[in-house]
Amino acid sequence: MGRLFAWPFRLLLAGTYRSGLRPWQLTLGSLGTNVVIGWLLLSDRRLVPGILLIPAGLFDILDGAIARLRGEESRFGAFLDSFLDRVCDVILFGCLYWSLAGQGARLEAGLALATLVISLAVSHIRAEAEDAGVSLSEGFFQRLERYVAMIAGLMVPGALLPALVVLTVLGGITVLQRGWSAVLRVGGGPEIRS
Q1: pLDDT value at position 120?
Q2: Which of 58, 90, 122, 185 is a plausible cystine mate for 134, CB 3.0–4.6 Å?
Q3: Cα gap 171→89, rounded to integer Å
Q4: CATH numbers and ranges of domains, the chain
Q5: Which of the following is catalytic: 60, 81, 85, 89?
Q6: What is the pTM of this model?
């Protein structure tokens, strides 16, 4: 999916750079947008949260790129970005779970909760591997793909259940993929070649 969005991303990145926005402003913009999305989900709205996931996702993918472009990368910035990304995941999928459970949509609520756990597990595996000195970035289904699936699931009538199934299944595969890669690399197994 990355290649599909490469040219528009570069154009958006250049415009954001020229606007003078700082990485921390984009990170907080993503958090603020996700708080609004969570509140709307708790109000049983779906279309507007789906629309708002577009700027939230853009803020999320642009903050690190702007930091690198401006030479403002720091360990603290990377930590803050990663931490607030997890907070945004909890807001989005936690509020969706709560909303769906309140409506009696048990399957959808369970899938939203599973997606939240999977999202946190993918991040945790990466953090633990990095703590052991191994860099992990591979994954079949990562953050950008989760945003696209949720945008479609919330905006297209009848698409939420299929989107949550896709998020759960492909996210689960990503947990297994990243976990296996971490075990091989951290445990002294054979090197995995990209």
Answers
A1: 95
A2: 185
A3: 13
A4: 6-186 (1.20.120.1760)
A5: 85
A6: 0.88
